[in-house]
Amino acid sequence: MTQNQDANNQAGRGVRWYHALVAGLMHAAFMLLAFPPISLFGLSFLAPVPLLWIAWKSQNPYKQGVFAAAGVLPFYAYQLDYVFHITAAGYIPLLLHLAMWPGLFVWIAGTVRKRFEKLPAVLLLPVVWVGLETIRGEVLWGGFEWYQVGQPLIAFPAVASIASLGGGYLLTLVLVLLGCLLLEVRSNSQLKKPAILVSTVLVVAVWGVSLLTLPRVSTDGESSVRISLVQTDVPQDNKVAWTPEQRMMDYQNFADLSINAAGDRPDLIVWPETMFPGPALDEAGAMAINRDGYNEANNIRDHFLALQSELRVPMLVGAITATNIRIDQQGRQSQDATYNSAYLVRNGQVRADRYDKIAPTPFGETLPYIKSVPWLQNLVLKIGLGASGMDFGLDAGTKAAPIEIETESGVIRAATPICFESSQSRICRRIANSGPGADLMIVMTNDGWFGDSDHGRAMHVLLARWRCLELGLPMARVANTGQSCFIDAKGRVTDILPPQEAGVLTGQVRLDAGLSRTPYRTVGNLVGWAALAGMLALLAGAIIKRIKDKPAGDTKRES
User: Fold this and answer.
1) CA-to-CA distance for 458 and 35, rounded, in angstroms?
2) What is the DSSP letter of 45?
3) φ and ψ at 146, to 5 degrees?
4) Model-level pTM?
């Protein structure tokens, strides 16, 4: 054993379980301060450091990973407080799931570090961190990209610009790399100086290129569209048990808001996700209802189409679609499939080329993996792990193409990710790149699920801002209970309505805002997948080395 390796082992033996717990608590504190509602975004640079230190120094990675995970729990307990009101039974499993990842980082990185002691921190730790983020954000349970350490930095465009090159995973890699430089400065490794030099050059190069390729926002472009966003304020409890009387009352409110919006002379009026209160907006669904003798159920649809024709403004509306509707003599409805859809209504007619949500919300609209096993799905629902009141029978759409909208200003192509999809970078990229591509994004969402937790609404807006920066596209975002807003191609909010208030927001969206196609639109989350491959290779190498070294290995464990 070399002198340096012995010194590292001696330092590692001084790291106890309570150090890991404190590191997890420090990470949680930095994250809590960096994210909404406090939003001290500069603390994102410090957030990874406590976990990096524990992983680098640990001689008992499994045990200290468990305590690090325990320390992180308070952050998620606060940020996801609204989940408790949706599904009390699912709240704790969700917290444990999210806190598991920092613990896994300490375990895996520490394990590899013990087997490859000469491996620099700047090579090992960023690869493991981003590899695990990729599994969490892209693979398991449909992906959950929330609460990555760099996400608060959308408020700092000069740094956030890195995501236009390789998305949020590249930004995370850079942040973790910066944190690793602190470890390298204090290390005694012979590779210390080369590691610091190469890492510094890499960070500066990535940052410089990102600034050069960041979308330029035009201030005098002629290509634009005027959009009015109708922010409804329907409490989620009302919408879950939407009685016919309440549907009609809400429709009248939506209609009044739309009339007010039309007074702003927009090219397009947009309603939030699933806000159409009738049983069917599409022509086939309405005809099936009439066929089975329930004509009065289409009253709201008839009123709505007449209203749109009178306003003479195209409308993009969120509605539930049921295919091949059948109503029996007892009034019970059945259908072949159910979708969460965006419809374009023009000249009093519903366009057939709707967008169906291609990635239903996990544990809200669908049960990943479980849906194909009916008895297991029924068991999960009985336990209450899913969102109460949600329809777990929603199917995934198959067509990701933008919707073409004819307006007074010309034809625009709108990518229309719905609700949770706006937090998934790969989904927004897929829609925006389909066919000839999109001119802008229009996000329709129902944020009533956040209840009184406005920090949840702010987080949802924050994630939408990243999609604009990554893709170089502006966005109009309309939300039930707020916050409806306009976001430019650099991810900056240009206008926003307050939460939990009904209202109308009208703004001019410049379609030439992204004058250059961002590299991210071409490469996607390649950085994340490369890091995952690297992490698996390092882990496999550590396992093989452990097997080879086992006869002569040190079998003592920390007490």
Assistant:
1) 9
2) G
3) -75, 150
4) 0.89
Three-state secondary-structure class, residue 445: strand
Going residue by residue through the chain (559 aa), what tens digit of pLDDT does each one get? Answer: 444 444 445 445 578 989 999 999 999 999 999 999 999 999 999 999 999 999 999 989 999 999 999 999 999 999 999 999 888 888 999 999 999 999 999 999 999 999 998 888 889 999 999 999 999 999 998 899 999 999 999 999 889 999 999 999 999 999 999 998 888 776 666 666 676 777 778 778 777 777 777 766 655 556 889 999 999 999 887 777 788 889 999 999 999 999 999 999 999 999 999 999 988 899 988 888 888 777 778 899 999 999 999 999 999 999 999 888 887 776 677 788 889 999 999 999 999 889 999 998 887 777 776 666 666 666 666 665 666 555 567 888 999 999 999 988 788 999 999 999 999 999 999 999 998 889 999 999 999 999 999 999 999 999 999 999 999 999 999 999 989 999 999 999 999 999 999 999 999 998 865 556 899 999 999 999 999 999 999 999 999 988 888 765 454 444 3
CATH no., domain 224-326+333-360+395-517: 3.60.110.10
Q: Which residue has the tokens 């801002």?
A: 465
Across 324-446, the runs of DSSP E, i.e. the strands, are: 326-327, 333-334, 337-346, 349-350, 355-356, 403-407, 410-415, 440-446
The torsion defined by the Cα of 421, 426, 427 and 430, in degrees rounded to 10, comes to 160
Asked if residue 412 lies in contact with residue 439, where contact means CB atoms within 8 angstroms, the answer is yes
Kindly report the length of the chain.
Answer: 559
φ, ψ (nearest 5 deg) of residue 222: -95, -20
HSE-CB for 80 with a 13 A CA cutoff: 22
Q: At a CB cut-off of 8 Å and minimum separation 6, what does 435 contact?
A: 401, 402, 413
Instruction: Give CA–CA dist 371/393, Å, rounded.
Output: 8
The residue extents of the domains of the chain are 8-214+521-552, 224-326+333-360+395-517, 361-394
Residue 24 identity (one-letter amino acid):
G
User: String of b and e for 190-212 (b: at least 16 CB within 10 Å)?
Assistant: ebbeebbeebeeebeebeeebee
Distance CA(172)–CA(504), nearest Å, equals 36
Using alpha carbons, list the distances in angstroms from residue 47 to 81, 185, 552: 21, 18, 38
**DSSP element (H, E) containing 224:** strand 224-231
Structure tokens at 38: 């406090």
Q: Which of 55, 12, 24, 83 is nearest to 390 (CA)?
A: 83
> For residues 52 and 24, what is the distance between their CA atoms, to the nearest angstrom?
10
Q: In one letter, which amino acid is 295?
A: N
State the amino acid at position 408 in one-letter form. Answer: E
